[in-house]
User: What shape does this take?
Amino acid sequence: LVVQHDWLFVKDADIAAAVDAMDQDSDVKYIGMQSLTTLDYARRMQVRYNLQLPPSREVCGLKLVPQLLWYDKPHLCRVAHYLEVVLPEAAMGVLENPERRYGVDRMWPHLRSCSDLEQEHLRYGTFF
Assistant: This one.
């Protein structure tokens, strides 16, 4: 569980169910916690970027919506995924973070321009 120093949980989050979902579905590599800016995420992606999100998934009683960025928000992600994928692919300098280098600089441009968003999104496995 990654929680930045300036974020608070204002609603209960079923962390155990989220971990179970990651255990049950190997395509789920990251689960971001909801915030006001992500509540209507699918519509925002459609209106702002003309992107139709891949289908949501039902796993362990959770409806997981594909997320096309790593937001600088609380999230669950396996340490192995950080060590084996995120950090090697997102070389960082001093005062840089993986959310920016991997999510914004690498993942977002790739997903915005790919021809098969549903398939390419699985490479990243990011959900809310």
Summary: The helical segments are 15-24, 41-49, 79-89, 98-113, 117-124. The first strand starts at residue 30 and ends at 32. DSSP finds five helices and five strands in the chain.
